[in-house]
Design brief:
This protein is mainly alpha-helical. It has helices spanning about 5-20, 30-55, 55-65.
Amino acid sequence: MTTARWIGVVWLLVIPAIVLPFTWLSRVQAWYGSFLLWSVLGLMVIVLNALATRHFNDAAQADDQGAGHE
């Protein structure tokens, strides 16, 4: 998947993290309602970022190897 698609998927998680606590969870008086949502979405964003950047080191090494053969 391209970097732009990964960014789009992350935004699909960020938007509910902003909207849901003020709409669907607005009547939950306890702090853990929004906190649980933000914790789960935060972990999902971390995993997505790890998946999106797992090939960055491979690309940098390929560039370094190619630059030495000029």
